[in-house]
Design brief:
3 strands; three-stranded antiparallel sheet; 112 residues; alpha+beta; globular; 4 helices
């Protein structure tokens, strides 16, 4: 998957528990940026396939530190993890609300 485009993020994320730990916040945003925004093969929006080792390498973190922060996001209810033969399938919980996929754009204010 090519790293193109953008991720639209709701300001409601400011009320999220990710801010309790800076590394959790960095990892969570990494997940948001890596997650599929559309159906892509077996992936649904908000999911991506990877491994702790690959994520650690991409972020320049240790494997154990990365695993600790993945577990932290999981315990906070921000992600889910399913293991399979290809590594792990990571899912951002509440993807459509966070990225406002189903929100209509605001209408312009009438001018007098």
């Amino acid at each position: 998957m090519e790293p193109t485009g953008f991720v639209k993020i709701s300001r409601t994320i400011l009320d999220s528990r990710i801010w309790e730990d800076g590394y959790d916040a960095a990892l969570y945003f990494f997940f948001l940026l890596r997650a599929s925004h559309n159906f892509y093969g077996r992936l649904k929006p908000g999911q991506f396939q990877s491994s702790v080792v690959s994520i650690a390498k991409a972020l320049g973190w240790s494997r154990n530190g990365t695993a600790k922060h993945i577990e932290s996001l999981f315990c906070k209810g921000l992600i889910s993890v399913s293991r399979n033969s290809d590594g792990a399938l990571y899912t951002v919980i509440g993807w459509s609300e966070i990225c406002q996929e189903n929100v209509r754009p605001a209408t312009a204010m009438p001018t007098s």
